[in-house]
Amino acid sequence: MELTRRQTRRMRCRIQGGDRAPGEARKILDRFDPALEGRRRDDARLLLSEVVNNSVRHAGAGPDETVELTLSRSPRKLRVTVADDGGGFDRDAARQPPDAEREGGRGLFLLDSIADRWGVINGRVTRVWFELTA
């Protein structure tokens, strides 16, 4: 996908929650930006999977619920936002190293380590967003 300096491509969609949601989100990202390659593609897919998985596991986005994805691509960056009806969380939790004894609990740590920028907007809807430079 070739974008001119000021051009931005955007897409918003809803996916069904549940165990298949992270895989579905990756497919949507791959279709949205097929030109994203190499490490940045792997990083984007991993982070999207982790954030969507958090929506499923911690915000209760089960098969009867939906998760909203917003993807935005400019020549310089990819921005991904995942929104759900969960109660939100404290961003400082990501700064804590994961417990080596626990099986999970690494999603926010990965987000904080890999994304160029990220944040959370808590409210009636929780929105977690991240950006990767292209």
Give an overview in words:
The structure is a single chain. The protein is an alpha+beta fold and 134 residues long. The chain has one domain (9-133): Histidine kinase-like ATPase, C-terminal domain (Heat Shock Protein 90), CATH 3.30.565. It is built from three helices and five strands; from the N terminus they run E-H-H-E-E-H-E-E. It has helices at 21-32, 38-58, 107-114, and strands at 9-16, 66-73, 77-84, 117-121, 126-133. The protein has a five-stranded antiparallel β-sheet, with helices on one face. Strand 2 (66-73) and strand 3 form a beta hairpin. Helix 1 packs antiparallel against helix 2 and helix 2 packs antiparallel against helix 3 (107-114). It is globular, with a radius of gyration of 14 Å. The chain starts with 8 loop residues before the first strand and ends with a strand. The mean pLDDT is 85.
Write a short abstract of this structure.
This protein is of the alpha+beta class and 134 residues long.
The CATH C-level class name:
Alpha Beta
**For the largest beta sheet, what order do the strands appear in spatially?**
1-2-3-5-4
What level of helicity do the residues show?
Answer: 25-40%
Our measurement of the CA-to-CA distance between the termini, rounded to an integer number of angstroms, reads: 12 Å
Largest sheet: 5 strands, antiparallel
**Derived structural class:** alpha+beta
